[in-house]
């Protein structure tokens, strides 16, 4: 990326420019389509069918019915509507610190937003703990039972909701929670959670808006990391889908889709599935394949993760390095024993790296997790540049007075309460 002065930046955070900024095939396919036809979706066009077929081909059976929308928020909102139509229930289980979109219906199931603002928690929303083995309520990154133990927490949430006479429509979660701090779900988590949710009469929604389309490398979709038998009932995709052009989608099963049709309320979306958006989406999926971007995510992701783990040997500020493919988090702590979040230091590093023309961001409940989610064209040379600048920035911070003095005496630092206003 370049700024108005022509400075060149290394973009380590833009998961919308998925196949690379201004990918020539995506630009051509979209502009060719704009030159041919772009209209609302009452007029059928073959690009919609071709893009839907392509999307479905990346998903396991029986996920085969696509609804095209314009944003991740629209996708998640429609998913809730479909889940409620199918189950005839209302309640939603979400994860703590989750973000699912900016619509009212989604703010209500996004503790990431409502806990920070004045938005009240609704009675039909039930929040399960984030399954984070490093900072969560249950810890132990190497505990093979962790996934089951966190799934039990969801079961407890379901039991308590049912005990209050409520009934579950859906469980919604990112298949690798990003806003909650680049968390990788422990093995056996979704398998068990999905079972409990279905036993309670609900459906399972995978929010793949941030991490889908191959970001995690080996698979197209994050939920696939949890095993071949782990298949959600509804999948929501967006962000990277159009490489910046607005397009998103909901994919579900025929059986579930029929229940929406049976409500008698037509699903209509003027721009959802317009020809240019579908051309962009199709070109993005083709570019992921043609440019071997999933393979690249595996290779470069592994290389970067290993380099960052080596940095952790040198800098005690790094408490944890985790990730899969090109979805990586570096959690900064003041003390490795107490795991006290190094929020100010994380902000300082982001600011320092920007001076070096490297774009990063932070997230997690304490905003102390450095997020790495670059365009999928990120290469090992880019990884080396990132790691060497991070090394210097971490060194600079360590060279300052003791961490405590650093927090107290540095007036420029951002206070954690101010961080709510910082946009992702
Ligand atoms: N789900 C997740 C996980 C997201 O990160 C976002 C956007 N940051 C959304 C949904 C909402 O997508 P949009 O901004 O396209 O409405």
TrEMBL record:
InterPro entries in UniProt: Aminotrans_3 (IPR005814), Aminotrans_3_PPA_site (IPR049704), PyrdxlP-dep_Trfase (IPR015424), PyrdxlP-dep_Trfase_major (IPR015421), PyrdxlP-dep_Trfase_small (IPR015422)
Short name of any one Pfam family annotated for the protein: Aminotran_3
Top-level taxonomic group: Eukaryota
CDD domains noted in UniProt: OAT_like (cd00610)
Gene3D superfamilies: Aspartate Aminotransferase, domain 1, Type I PLP-dependent aspartate aminotransferase-like (Major domain)
Keywords for the protein's UniProt record, in alphabetical order: Pyridoxal phosphate
SUPFAM superfamilies per record: PLP-dependent transferases
Family recorded in the similarity comment: Belongs to the class-III pyridoxal-phosphate-dependent aminotransferase family.
Protein's name according to its UniProt entry: Uncharacterized protein
Organism: Ranatra chinensis
Organism phylogeny: Eukaryota, Metazoa, Ecdysozoa, Arthropoda, Hexapoda
């Amino acid at each position: 990326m370049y700024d108005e002065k022509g400075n060149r930046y290394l973009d380590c955070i833009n998961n919308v420019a998925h196949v690379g900024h201004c990918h020539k095939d995506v630009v051509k396919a979209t502009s060719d389509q704009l030159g041919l036809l772009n209209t609302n979706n009452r007029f059928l066009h073959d690009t919609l069918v071709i893009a839907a077929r392509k999307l479905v081909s990346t998903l396991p059976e029986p996920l085969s019915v696509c609804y095209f929308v314009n944003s991740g928020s629209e996708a998640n909102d429609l998913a809730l509507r479909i889940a409620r139509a199918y189950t005839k229930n209302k309640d939603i289980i979400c994860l703590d610190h989750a973000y699912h979109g900016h619509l009212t219906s989604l703010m209500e199931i996004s503790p990431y937003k409502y806990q920070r603002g004045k938005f009240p928690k609704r009675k039909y929303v039930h929040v399960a703990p984030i399954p984070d083995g490093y900072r969560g309520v249950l810890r132990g990154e190497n505990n093979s039972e962790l996934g089951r133990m966190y799934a039990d927490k969801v079961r407890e949430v379901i039991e308590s909701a049912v005990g209050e006479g409520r009934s579950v429509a859906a469980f919604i979660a990112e298949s690798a929670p990003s806003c909650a701090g680049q968390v990788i779900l422990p093995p056996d988590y979704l398998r068990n959670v999905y079972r409990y949710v279905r036993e309670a009469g609900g459906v399972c929604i995978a929010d793949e808006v941030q991490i889908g389309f191959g970001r995690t490398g080996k698979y197209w979709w994050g939920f696939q990391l949890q095993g071949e038998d782990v298949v959600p009932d509804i999948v929501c995709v967006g962000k990277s889908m159009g490489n910046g052009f607005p397009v998103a989608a909901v994919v579900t099963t025929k059986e579930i889709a029929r229940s929406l049709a049976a409500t008698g309320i037509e699903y209509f979306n003027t721009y959802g599935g317009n020809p240019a958006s579908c051309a962009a989406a199709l070109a993005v999926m083709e570019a992921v394949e043609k440019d071997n971007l999933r393979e690249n995510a595996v290779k470069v992701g592994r290389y970067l993760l290993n380099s960052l783990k080596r940095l952790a040997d040198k800098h005690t500020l790094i408490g944890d390095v985790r990730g899969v493919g090109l979805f990586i988090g570096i959690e900064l702590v003041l003390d490795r024993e107490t795991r006290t979040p190094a929020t100010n230091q994380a902000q300082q590093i982001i600011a320092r790296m920007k001076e070096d023309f490297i774009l990063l961001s932070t997230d997690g409940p304490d905003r102390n997790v450095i997020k790495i989610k670059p365009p999928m064209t990120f290469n090992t040379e880019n990884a080396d540049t990132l790691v060497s600048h991070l090394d210097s920035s971490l060194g600079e911070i360590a060279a300052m007075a003791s961490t405590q003095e650093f927090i107290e005496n540095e007036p420029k630092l951002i206070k954690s309460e101010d961080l709510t206003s910082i946009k992702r």
